[in-house]
Amino acid sequence: MQERGINSTFKKIIYESSEMVFLADDSFPYNIFYANESFEEQIGESLKEKSLVGLGLDINAYIFKEELILTHEGKDYAFRIELPQESSSNYFLFYKGKEVRTHGLPSKKEAQQFFKSSLDLIAIGQHDYLTYLNHTVHPILGYAVEELLNTSLCSFIHEDDLEEIRDVWKQTGEVERLGFFNTRFKGKDGIYRYLECSVQFTADRFFIIARDCSEKSNKKEKEAQLIALKNLAPDHVKVGTWHYDSNLEVLSFDIPASMILNCSNIIEFKKDMKGVDKEIQTAFQVQVASVKKDETNLDFSFELKNSSNQTLCFSVKSDSAVKGEKASEIIGIVWDESPRIELQQKIKLHEKLLFDSPEALLIVTQSGEIFLFNQEGRNLFGIDENEKILHLSDLNTYFEESDQWKEWIEISGTGPAVRRFSSLLVSPIGEQLTLEVASKLTLIDEKSFIQLSFRNISEKVTLEKTLEESDDFLMNLTEQVPGGLYQLVLDTEGKMSFSFLSKGINSVLGLKADEMGQFTDISVAISRVHPMDLPNVILTSVASARKQQPWQCQFRVKTNQESNDYKWILGAARPQSLENGDMVWYGYLTDITDQKQFESKLDEARKVAEKANQIKSDFLSMISHELRTPLNAISGSTYSLLQEQPNEHQKSALNTINFAVDNLIIMINDLLDFQKIEAGKLTIEENPFQLEELVNQIIKGLSFHARDSKNALELHLGEGLGIWVKGDKTRLSQVLNNLITNALKFTHEGKVDVKVQLKEQKNGKARVYFEVMDNGIGIASENQEMIFNDFDQVKPTFSKKYGGTGLGLSITRKLLNLMGGAIALHSEEGKGSSFYFDLVFNLSESQNVTPSKAIGQIAHSNHLNLLMAEDNDVNALVLGKIIKKWGFEFHRVVNGEEAVNAVKNQTYDCILMDIQMPVMDGFDATKEIKKFSQTPVIALTAAAKLEILERIEECGFDGFVAKPIDAAELLKKIREVVSESNQRA
Ligand code: ADP
After folding, report:
1. What mean pLDDT, rounded, does the chain reach?
2. Which ligand 1 atom is nearest residue 776's CA?
3. Could you tell me the distance, in angstroms and rounded to a whole number, from the CA of residue 562 to the centre of ligand 1?
4. Which of 223, 298, 411, 549 maximizes the CB count within 10 A of its CB?
């Protein structure tokens, strides 16, 4: 150190200085030859080469500077420098050395290092060009630093971003300010890079730090695209995304997409893509091909049906649409449209169903705006399709009362319950209809709708009214009807109870109000029935139930529970068995006490009348008996006298007597017949007889009478009347006798013709025509109907002249009616009359029997031995004479007992038995005789009483002849019965 001329004082100062001081050679390598302790401690000791070169200093750079910064081991130290002043000094003095504190800032070196190696692009510029750029520009944008220095930046910036950048530049104000912007900067390869920039402006410069955020931005861009794509899909569908990378030639799908397309999530894009639906494969291939061909702006949607008939929708976008260059990627979305299509179809269907519903429907909002008004609704109101009805108030004109709709849509607290209203509507044709409006609140997506349905209930209302009326009517009827109505049920367990009782039951059964309730029990009802009538009530009820036949019963019930008075009740019911096995009677009870009283009065009256009738009958019987007895005597005596050759005068007198007696006999016979017919006791017999013979007999029998009345009586018989027919020849004779007698009576010196003709004969029947015609006085037309009435004659005075009772024609008509014929009359006053009728007879098979022949045979036999039982001597005398005249023998007894004994002792051919006799009457005697003998018995009686005639038959008589006895009739009867008896024997 010495040799350099540095004195020790200087050295001492240096040495003791707290600041670093060192001295270095002024020639290469500028060795540090003296340093103080401070320097040694901080720098010197750790220096490998103790020289300025070792410290990394280029001393030339500091020649004109008074200070230099020295960096050692990451620390900066500042030194003042003293260059050699004189030629003798050949060293540099570095003094006042101290560490430069950077307070965390990098050192210059570090800063430079940072600038050089930063991943961010750092640039400094002025106006619109750069003056500094770090080297990061190359990896980011591909340029060398020099290529961008001092060139206008605008040409590199994406035209769309220029505006924004200009704005950032233009902003003035503070001298030092910051700005931020993002921009697309064209790289050397022509591709824009996204740069995120912050810029600091100073007075004349700007400093930019920019970072490449292309990746992030592309990702964002892609996301934005996907979102945009996804927005294309309808709401609420599950959207899958897929992406095609043209570099890798793969298709990748997210999970939803692979589920929708039913494939794995990465598929190599080849001709045949495994596991992908054929249709979809084709679609992808077409799309990718078109992307490759078109190369730019791929942005479209399409739809296809896969093999499972699902409708799939695709929306596609390529990255070229963003970058304006050849697409390297395609992104897309896919969703299954089928559920939505199905849903749409469903909605359409529901809409259609609502619209076409057979119910008139209206759907409205809570404020009455119409949301749906279906066709039936329009029909109901008569609103044309084109007419717009937007609000419920538009319907006001159709209703009798306006604003009723407000009530319908009022939302009550009851929620979705259906509320019903009734409204009067005037139909399109002016009819008044009753509508039932049903209103229901429905919430859809928190929106309230009100469904209104309208139903025409006019018919129902009318029906209900009619029902109500008929109900009232029936109610009135059941209440007003005399008596009471009830319904009685017999259930399957045998329990009987009333299921209905009308109010009337109260009064019929004399029930008190409180009894009515208990009365449903049948036993209560039964306890009220009269004990004598109860068996009948029960028996008839049981029979009705068994046979299911209507029940009717008259019985007595107590007027009230306490009393012992009874009233008469008529009960009637009709049973019906129900499906459940129960039996129901619908019936009524009515008070017939009054009727019963009336009936009993009637019964009494009837008994009185019957008694009177009996008296009349008895009287008639008695009178005829009393008349017949003397008539018998007169007739018998006259007959005897005429047999004893009287002189002419006597003979005339006797004939007059005979005529009078005959007339009387006819009259009595008529009366008896009339009574018999009236009482319905006359029966028509069916016995065989020959028509021709009968008619001949009748004419023959009347020929004397004809001669007497100076009339010609002629019979005109038609062909074929020799037939045997079955009928009542006695009654037919009576009819013809009546008509011929009348004709002879009302004709003087004229002609009476009797015509009989066989009109038809077939099927075992013969129709025969009878006519009695005269040319007498005739009958005035006004009297022609009257003469057939009972006791009627043309003029009562006639009877004086002609006799008669006026009963003949009445009896004739009635007899013919009984025989199945009908009499007709043709007559002219003064010219004559004709009575005619038809009768149908059954043909008889026993034609060969000719009883007349048998009678004839017997008639010729004179050996008949008769028993006469007759208590009256006159009668016995007359009858005896007649019998003698016939040449028969007889034995007389005077009572029944004698008669019985006589028959026991002797044999008779026939017994003539009087009825009324002392000791034993004719009835008892005949009964006795018939017990042991076959001898025929003929009753002789003057009695006309029907009962007697009936008893005659009962007691076994073989015949009957009325007193006064007609001799010829008696002979005929004797012959008949004897012949029959012989035949039997
Ligand atoms: P009557 O016993 O009085 O004859 P009818 O009933 O036989 O009673 O006759 C009734 C009346 O009819 C007679 O009274 C008579 O006036 C009239 N009449 C009946 N037949 C004839 C006839 N053939 N010619 C004229 N009048 C007749």
Report:
1. 83
2. 24
3. 70
4. 298
The stretch 893-908 carries a mean pLDDT of 93
SS3 at position 366: coil
Distance 819 CA to ligand 1 centre (A): 22
Under 8 Å between Cβ of 39 and 20: yes
The pLDDT score that the predictor gives to residue 167 is 86
**Dihedral angle of Cα 516, 517, 522, 527, to the nearest 10 degrees:** -60
Give the separation between CA 32 and CA 51, rounded to whole angstroms. Answer: 5
777 lines ligand 1 (CB under 6 A): yes
Mutational pocket test of ligand 1: of 746, 748, 834, the residue with most ligand atoms within 8 Å of the beta carbon = 746
Q: For the purposes of burial, counting CB atoms within 10 Å of the CB of 72, is it exposed (0-12), middle (13-18) or buried (19 or more)?
A: middle
- Quick check: CB of 793 below 6 Å from ligand 1? yes
28 C-alpha to ligand 1 centroid (Å): 205
Report whether residue 698 contacts ligand 1, using a CB cutoff of 6 Å.
no
In a 13 Å sphere around the CA of 188, the CA atoms on its Cβ side amount to 11
Q: State the pLDDT at residue 855.
A: 38
Q: What is the mean pLDDT of residues 162-186?
A: 82
Q: Which residue from 510, 517, 574 is spatially nearest to 548, judged by alpha carbons?
A: 574
Is the beta carbon of 692 within 6 A of some atom in ligand 1?
no
Other CB atoms within a 10 A radius of the CB of residue 818 amount to 14
Tokens of 3: 């040799």
Predicted pLDDT of residue 322 = 45
Alpha helices in 390-533 (DSSP H): 405-409, 458-480, 504-509, 513-518, 522-527
- Taking the centre of ligand 1 as the mean of its atom positions, its distance from the CA of residue 88, in whole angstroms, is 217
Residue 319 confidence class, pLDDT cut points 50, 70, 90: low
C-alpha 807 – ligand 1 centre gap (Å): 9
Number of C-beta neighbours around residue 472 at 10 A = 10
- Given a cut of 90, whether residue 712 has pLDDT beyond it is yes
857 band by pLDDT with thresholds 50, 70 and 90: very low
Contact in structure between 39 and 98 (CB atoms under 8 Å): no
Give me the phi and psi of 285, to 5 degrees please: -60, -45
Reading the block at residue 812, the tokens are: 């004739």
Interval 754-793: pLDDT, tens: 999 999 999 999 999 999 999 999 999 988 888 887 666 6
Mutate to test the pocket of ligand 1, among 774, 809, 836 (most ligand atoms within 8 A of CB): 809
Task: Give the integer Cα–Cα distance in Å for 156 and 147.
Answer: 12
Give the Å distance between the CA of 804 and the centre of ligand 1: 8
Q: Which of 8-12, 124-128, 322-326 has the lowest mean pLDDT?
A: 322-326
Whether the CB of 798 sits within 6 Å of ligand 1 = yes
- 453 bridge partner residues: 361, 438
Alpha-carbon distances, residue 976 vs 430, 855, 964 (angstroms): 96, 6, 20
Q: What angle do CA 294, 298, 157 make, to 5 degrees?
A: 95
Rounded Cα distance, 829 and 845, in Å: 45
Give the residue ranges of DSSP H helices in 803-870: 808-818, 851-860
| Antiparallel, parallel or unpaired: β 910-914 and 865-869 | parallel
| Rounded Cα distance, 585 and 349, in Å | 57
Determine whether the shortest distance from the Cβ of 832 to ligand 1 is under 6 A: no
The per-residue pLDDT for 858 is 40
Is it the case that residue 725 has pLDDT exceeding 80?
A: yes
Q: Which long-range contacts (CB under 8 A, 24 or more apart) does 192-201 make?
A: 192/158, 192/323, 193/140, 193/141, 194/218, 195/121, 195/140, 199/168, 200/176, 201/175, 201/176, 201/177
CA gap 515, 959 in Å, rounded: 70
* Most confidently predicted of 360-364, 491-495, 836-840: 836-840
Q: Which atom of ligand 1 is nearest to the CA of 810?
A: 6
